[in-house]
Structures are given as structure tokens and as C-alpha cells.
Fold C-type lectin domain-containing protein.
Amino acid sequence: MGIPDRKQSGPANTSQQRIPPGRKQPGFEAARLFNANQGDQLQHSHLPPTDKTLTLNGKIVITGDKLFATTEKTVDFDGTVKICKAAHGSIASPKNAKENAAVLSFVKQFNTYAYLGITEGHIPGYFNYLTGKPLNFTNWYENEPMGKGTEKCVEMYTDGTWNDKVCSYSRLTVCEF
Ligand SMILES: [Ca+2]
């Protein structure tokens, strides 16, 4: 259940970086990279209205104008950033409750925390998106962040709340496109 038979379409891992010519839409490329077995289904679907969330086999969630996908694998923060960039996306950075819920669906499914695209700025206790822009949505766990300059990254707990954390743990890779 949940894990498709990969023998027919090859491994759906991140080493599969080839993007077929003619596939311009990042979401579709992401679908192919992250979930080869679902790619063909996505080709024939359309992005839903902004108030809808579409979930395909639990590994791709489209909400609003973003597509979230997981590799189903864990890696540290820097590794997550690299993997998501290589797939023409970026590490998941939920900017509202629905996007947070989309990331949470993976965290729950794999029962594994995920790093978010949020890091501590120069001032301890103040966190920004990787672009350097300040957060416009937060979902901190009670009393977090409390690393005070020692926990530069942010992970999502299995209840969807956030915790500042050192960046070297293995966490579920979740990207957005
Ligand atoms: Ca913390």
C-alpha cells in the first residue's frame, strides 16, 4: 500500500535527473522526478482551483499554486536544499496553513520530521526564508524557537508545529515547485 511497484518504470529516486524534452512545466517535471509512476496521470490533469488540494498517492500534494513532493528519503538540511534545486524546485517553505498542512501530510505519512526552507538570520531568534525575506506565516511549537543562535534550521514536527534545530540531522526531503 502506498509504495508503487517500481520495477516497471525504474527507480523513482533522485539520481533520475533526466528531464525529457518538451516537458516545460516544473510541476510535471517534479512529478516525473519524484514519482515516476504518477507522471502520466499528472500529464492529463489540471491544476485545481486555489481552494482545492489534490493528493496523488500521498507523495505529491498540490495546494493553491504550489506543488509539494517528497523523495521519501531523509537527508540533512544542505542535502535537502541541493536535491530540491536539482529538481528545479526548492525546499518546502510553507507560507500559510494550507501549505503547512501539505508538508505535514508527508511528515505524518512517513512519521519523519522535515526541514523547512527557513533559517535563522543574523539576529538570534529571528528566522527568514532562504531568500532573506522575513516570515509571513509561522507555526512554532510552544516556547520555540529557543535555540537562540545555536539552532539555525527549522524542522516540522508530526503535529505540523515547528522547532528550530541544528541542520545536520536526517530529515524527510520535501520540496515545493
Ligand atoms: Ca528548538
User: Anything to note?
Assistant: The domain at 26-176 is CATH 3.10.100.10 (Mannose-Binding Protein A; Chain A). The first strand starts at residue 53 and ends at 56. Strands lie at 53-56, 60-63, 66-75, 90-91, 114-120, 127-129, 153-156, 162-165, 171-176.
